[in-house]
Amino acid sequence: MADSDKPHLWEKKVSIVYADCRIFKVLKTRFRHPVRKSEGDFFVIDASSWITVVAVTKRQELVTVRQFRFGIEDLSLEVPAGVMESDEDPLESGIRELREETGFVGEGAELLGWIYPNPAIQNNRCHVVGIHNVKQVTKTHWDEHEEIETRLVPLGQVADLLAGGEFRHALSLCALQFYFLKYPL
Amino acid sequence: MADSDKPHLWEKKVSIVYADCRIFKVLKTRFRHPVRKSEGDFFVIDASSWITVVAVTKRQELVTVRQFRFGIEDLSLEVPAGVMESDEDPLESGIRELREETGFVGEGAELLGWIYPNPAIQNNRCHVVGIHNVKQVTKTHWDEHEEIETRLVPLGQVADLLAGGEFRHALSLCALQFYFLKYPL
Fold first, then answer.
1. In this predicted model, what pLDDT tens digit does every residue of B60-70 receive, in sequence order?
2. Taking the CB of the first residue and of the last residue of chain A, which one, N or C, has fewer CB atoms within 10 A?
3. Judgement on whether residues A71 and A41 belong to the same structural domain of the protein
4. How far is CA A31 from the centre of its chain?
5. What is the CATH number of the domain that holds B160?
6. Record: contact A171-B73, CB cut-off 8 A
């Protein structure tokens, strides 16, 4: 194949659940190249869609959360985020996650975009919800193992925090990128 | 616990390999909250570090790649990326991935930043390498199942492509974000 040719869509063959890991499954799926006729087994993480929330106060402060993350075994500064329930649309999910994690509620919730967390090995999407004029009006409602610190960060400081490595969560960075594409400083 | 208290660092207890999925393992690890004393089992994807490359020509064009991705079962437009070899540093890895996937070689390779792809359920990092004045000088050298289309995109069009949903890979978006933080248009 010449480099300039278009890549082909592989044909999906049999797929099995290789491991059930509660918040995601690992699928082992056989694919076949339509031209080369070669086949291979590929592992894919099967997960519900995720949601990230860029919530901004009337004074142009970003709502951030800090919590222990079991993947990196350390605290992580992020925007509020979570797993969409099966019966939710992204806006409902974003409003719920923001309220449960931080007690903040706002107005004008809007879908700012969506991304694939990792097209190579994951099949789910992550939606980005913007919520405006938020304020803390209710108690938090954490899941069993959650313990979340809420901080307000002036929007004008976010770029410095990104450049300084304070935000490390890829999906938080993407959420902020969508927000600033629509609402440049 | 009051909302304003700092979150605690959980203590790591026993960890087992729950599933070996070739390019990653799934660990099942027991953690214990130091104050609540509650315990829980958490699944973590254990993977090598990854690398993404923002490669730019002398004419200010971004090198992009398009390929079939088994996670989403569709083609995906991205920046060059891959898995770091165990004996590589991020710059070596970025230079190698760019050359293997696209045949492009450049100068002034630099580390633009690093992120966690997903601190909640993954333990690895993704480093972002910038490479300047790149040009296509060698043949591609694809892995067994790779089939990659290379396209040059003027840097000035990248924001429109992001807003238009042409780039969906979270790690590509983060790479571009780091590049534009350092080199604004």
1. 999 999 999 99
2. C
3. no
4. 27
5. 3.90.79.10
6. no
Look at residue B4 and tell me if it is in a domain: no
Q: Are A67 and A146 in contact (CB under 8 A)?
A: yes
Query: Does some domain include residue A5?
Result: no
**Measured between CB atoms, does B68 come within 8 Å of chain A?**
yes
CA B175 to chain centre: 8
Give the closest residue to A146 by CA, choosing from B15, B97, B10: B10
Domain residues for B40?
11-46
Report CB contact under 8 Å: B71, A21: no
Which residues make beta-bridge pairs with A107? A132
Q: A21 with A70, same domain?
A: no
Sign of the four-CA dihedral B99, B104, B108, B112? negative
Beta-carbon separation of A168 and B116 below 8 A: yes
This complex has an ipTM of: 0.94
pLDDT in tens, B126-163: 999 999 999 999 888 888 888 999 999 999 999 999 98
